[in-house]
Amino acid sequence: MRVGDWRPFGQVPEISVEQLQKEREQGAIQIVDVRTGPEFRRSRIPEARHLPITAFSRHRLDSLKLDRQRPVVAICLTAHRSIPAVRKLRELGYDARQLRGGMRAWWKSGGTCTQD
Hints:
116 residues; alpha/beta
């Protein structure tokens, strides 16, 4: 990613916790968690794929085998690290959004989590 792409601020499309829960139940969404490995192992949304923002590249994204026909939601702790991930995903042609409020909002809502 270019240096300017790393800006953790600015506007990107978002999805609410409620909408994410609904779309997950329908199997209509893909989730990419961009937090660190320890954060991801400690608590994550089931079905989430992991790609830390520090390793975000086209090659690494290709390894996730995301379906370009289904929307992608990028998730981090507080909806800051996911901003550059959404920018990159959209640049590559994905319909990408971030989870408004990040994992903190997911936990607050009582959303399902799994851990290692």
